[in-house]
Design goal:
The chain is globular, with a radius of gyration of 25 Å. Helices cover about 75% and strands about 0% of the residues. Helix 9 runs antiparallel to helix 13.
Length: about 300
């Protein structure tokens, strides 16, 4: 009897041909993915690494000066990232808390969730057209960083909302019932127990949204424009703050927009150099996501 049981264990079973073929297909697919990624990264850095220099990061494009740089585009990207996350994060997290903790499971909630999922699948160029007409023309913001940030807020809102919902659902029900059973109010329970427990998933969603903001170009071509001028700050604090605020109402092209413009003009070395910068940013965001998730798990 023991010999029969021993022969039936997974360890001692004979490998079938189908299992071997399936395992080989998995390894081939994995190797293909790694090779493709390494090839793209290697080719981009081979074509663009020679353009990277201190001058490239600190100057702006100028025909008269003969300079090629991305300083203005880096500033514009930072502007759009900060404004977009400032708008989308509280709305997305707040919506997820309401849908998950207050709204229940009625038809209205299902309609809202279906709408959110549909919104996340709309092509970015459609968002760009909507943002240009609604924010740019109707509200008179024209081509500006603020118009681009408002448009991107609509784009990343479903991503933040859905990730926050999933993060809240992973929190055990015993945490909720235990806190409420001890006399805590629902908002106090959400603020002190649910949100800290779900924070790794929430932060991961925000970082993913950050990556999409940085990598977006189609929507920004219709809304933010392609300006790359730097702010000239002086010694007057009030005047500097006014210039910083005024920058949001002016045209501003991000790194991806400038990459597209360089490609359209045939300046391929500069375009690949921006590609190197974007790849490094994507790599750092992935590392940041894993680091933040591990930090919250340890806490």
């Amino acid at each position: 009897m023991s010999n029969i049981a021993k022969d039936n264990t997974l360890k001692n079973r004979k490998c079938r041909v189908s299992d071997v073929l399936l395992m080989a297909a998995i390894y081939i697919a994995a190797a293909l993915s790694v090779t493709l990624l390494a090839g793209i990264i290697g080719y981009v850095f081979y074509k663009g690494f020679g353009m990277l220099s201190a001058e490239f990061f600190t100057s702006t494009p100028s025909v008269l000066k003969g300079t090629v740089g991305i300083a203005g585009n880096l500033v514009n990207t930072l502007y759009i990232v900060l404004i977009t996350l400032f708008i989308a994060t509280p709305i997305g997290v707040g919506s997820a808390i309401y849908l998950n903790e207050y709204a229940g499971t009625g038809k209205l909630v299902k309609i809202i969730e279906f709408t959110t999922e549909t919104l996340s699948g709309i092509p970015s160029v459609i968002f760009g057209l909507f943002g240009m007409v609604f924010f740019g023309n109707t509200f008179g913001l024209s081509y500006s960083i603020l118009t681009g940030a408002l448009t991107l807020s609509l784009m990343v809102l479903p991503l933040i909302t859905r990730n926050t919902q999933e993060a809240l659902r992973t929190v055990p029900l015993s945490y909720r019932s235990g806190a409420l059973g001890m006399g805590a109010t629902k908002w106090y329970m959400i603020r002190t127990i649910l949100l800290p427990s779900a924070m790794p998933g929430i932060v991961t969603g925000i970082i993913l949204a950050l990556g999409r903001i940085i990598g977006e170009s189609a929507a920004l071509l219709f809304t933010a424009g392609s300006g790359y001028d730097l702010i000239r700050l002086g010694s007057n604090l009030g005047g500097n703050l006014e210039k910083i605020a005024d920058k949001t109402l002016r045209s501003g092209g991000t790194l991806t927009v400038q990459l597209y413009l360089y490609m359209s003009k045939g300046e391929y070395d500069a375009a690949f150099a921006i590609g190197c910068v974007l790849l490094v940013i994507a790599f750092l965001l992935n590392i940041l996501t894993k680091f933040v998730a591990r930090s919250f798990r340890r806490a």
